[in-house]
Amino acid sequence: MDDMISITVVDRDGSEQQIDVPTDINLSLMELLKASSYDILATCGGMALCATCHVQILAAADSLRSPSDQELDMLDTLPDADDDSRLACQLRLTNDNDGLRLKIKGALQ
């Protein structure tokens, strides 16, 4: 299938899972992680206002579009954010993101 990619997700406890992700349904990475039963609060509903969907990109970061100023402003408020940090709610995956590897870092409360 042309509109399916595979990404690797490392959960907070270090467990790692590869998941297949459709790229033709226009969901954010945050919505895809929630649909895959990962515990993501997403308190703001994907508006880049809470950072509870904070992820660290471990591989293939160059395949993602650059973060917006709003995303960067929110990431600046996090004590554990670094240059590899992104908000999953702001990422829409495309076929170019096959092989993406990320770690979930967002808070649980």
From TrEMBL:
Gene3D superfamilies: 3.10.20.30. It comes from the Bacteria. Residues 5-108 form the 2Fe-2S ferredoxin-type domain. The keyword Iron applies. Its cofactor is [2Fe-2S] cluster. Belongs to the adrenodoxin/putidaredoxin family. This is 2Fe-2S iron-sulfur cluster-binding protein. It comes from Sphingobacterium oryzagri.
